[in-house]
């Protein structure tokens, strides 16, 4: 018997809106990762904001530790991209300009440095040798909706998330 996956997006009570180009809209959690990670997967639903024509990086997730502002950061525009331990890898695609919700994921393992991007359940980019043997350090700060240039701040209005 084949398993079927069904996607049921959360209701409005869990919806975060980032509809203006401002560095004051975000959610923040200090000490959000309590153990060092040698693998990570991050998934979320997002759709492009039709009111934004910018090709600036839009980063829905940013995790920073002292000394490394891009310990684990995920951006969606212009292409899907992840920064781990300050270095980056990109997929060949970004969010579609279709006003539809898309399920976006990135996964990484330090064992061989394997990483893979998914969009709506389909692999859209992968590779290996990305921070092999490294780990995401615990004790940092997570921000949803902004890219941190310092722990808990240093937000840049050209790299914020503008989406619904």
UniProtKB/TrEMBL annotation:
Entries under Pfam families matching the protein: Pentaxin
Superkingdom of source: Eukaryota
PROSITE patterns: PTX_1 (PS00289), PTX_2 (PS51828)
Co-factor binding comment: Binds 2 calcium ions per subunit.
InterPro entries documented for this protein: ConA-like_dom_sf, Neuronal_Pentraxin_Related, Pentaxin_CS, PTX_dom
Entry keyword annotation includes Signal: no
Cofactors: Ca(2+)
Localization of this protein: Secreted
Keywords: Calcium, Disulfide bond, Glycoprotein, Metal-binding
GO MF annotation, one: metal ion binding
Pentraxin (PTX) domain ranges (all copies): 12-164
GO CC terms in record: extracellular region
SUBUNIT field: Homopentamer. Pentaxin (or pentraxin) have a discoid arrangement of 5 non-covalently bound subunits.
PANTHER family: LAMININ G DOMAIN-CONTAINING PROTEIN, PENTRAXIN
Family statement: Belongs to the pentraxin family.
Full protein name: Pentraxin family member
Organism: Desmophyllum pertusum
């Amino acid at each position: 018997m084949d398993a079927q996956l069904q996607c049921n997006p959360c209701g409005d009570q869990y919806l975060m809106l980032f509809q203006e180009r401002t560095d004051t809209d975000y959610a923040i959690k200090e000490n959000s990762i309590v153990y060092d990670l040698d693998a990570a997967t991050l998934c979320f639903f997002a759709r492009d904001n039709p009111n934004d024509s910018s090709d600036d990086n839009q980063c829905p997730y940013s995790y920073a530790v002292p000394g490394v502002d891009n310990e684990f950061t995920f951006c969606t525009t212009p292409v899907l991209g992840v920064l781990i331990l300050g270095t980056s890898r990109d997929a060949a695609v970004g969010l579609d300009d279709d006003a539809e919700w898309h399920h976006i994921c990135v996964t990484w393992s330090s064992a061989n440095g394997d990483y893979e991007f998914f969009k709506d359940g389909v692999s859209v980019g992968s590779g290996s040798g990305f921070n092999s043997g490294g780990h995401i350090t615990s004790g940092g700060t997570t921000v949803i909706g902004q890219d941190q240039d310092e722990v808990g701040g240093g937000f840049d209005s050209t790299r914020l998330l503008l989406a619904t």
